[in-house]
Write a structure and sequence with these properties.
Layout (H helix, E strand, L loop, with lengths): L1 H26 L2 E3 L14 H13 L24 E6 L3 H6 L3 E3 L13 E5 L2 E6 L4 E2 L9 E7 L4 E5 L6 E5 L12 E5 L2 E5 L5 E6 L3
Parallel strand pairs: 1-12, 2-5
Antiparallel strand pairs: 2-7, 3-4, 4-5, 6-7, 7-12, 8-11, 9-10
Length: 210
């Protein structure tokens, strides 16, 4: 039961993440990267594209989420600004590290203050990467995959629970009174709707790989 609960817990939370990801991909306003050199539309990610999305969120009065991490006298580290969160695919790792001003999480003065999926920061964006990050297959002008980076301020989107309940873990034990119920079953169910709470506080920064 413990093992089943652990595996189902991972499945449940990943399913919730995927539903929220799909909602953001289909409804959030977007900005295409244009500063790259790969000749595609959108282009690969550059610092000018990062600066543009930060400026847009700031102009829309979006609050930052991540607190600043003050600089310390440690070799190879740099202070981290208060920041919006940018959520994307792990396939962006190489391109992110090539962007001017990228600071890896290991270079934070206090990396223990970063989130586990955080890869690093660029200016006022802190990047959270996942293997299930949003990808639009063959969505660019040249037919390449487009990677959606959801850049969000505080309270930009939410999950609304339906019918007054959140996720439920369901276990039915075996019943030894006939062939139709000899095996136990276990599962989960939930009723919720992800939604954007303020369109001005979430931007899909669309990019291709270099």
């Amino acid at each position: 039961m413990n093992e089943a609960a652990q595996r189902l817990g991972v499945s449940l939370r990943q399913t919730e993440d995927e539903l929220t990801r799909n909602m953001l991909a289909s409804t959030a306003s977007f900005i295409n990267c244009t500063g790259g050199t790969n000749g595609d539309n959108p282009t690969n990610l550059t610092r000018t594209d990062v600066d543009e999305v930060i400026k847009t969120l700031a102009d829309n009065n979006a609050y930052t989420i991540g607190q600043n991490i003050e600089g310390e006298d440690k070799f190879g580290t740099a202070p981290v600004r208060d920041a919006y969160f940018a959520m994307g695919s792990t396939k962006l790792i190489g391109d992110l590290e090539d962007v001017d001003g990228f600071i890896a999480k290991a270079q934070y003065p206090a990396p223990m203050n970063a989130m586990k999926p955080e890869w690093g920061s660029i200016s006022n964006l802190r990047f959270l990467l996942s293997s299930i990050g949003s990808i639009t297959s063959s969505g660019s002008a040249l037919g390449n995959d487009v990677y959606n980076i959801f850049c969000v301020g505080m309270e930009a989107f939410a999950v609304v629970e339906q019918d007054g309940y959140s996720s439920q873990f369901i276990y039915r034990p075996p019943i030894y009174d006939g062939p139709l119920a000899l095996n136990a079953s276990v599962g989960y169910k939930f009723a919720q709707v992800p939604r954007i709470t303020n369109d001005a506080w979430v931007i899909n920064l669309r990019t291709t790989l270099a």
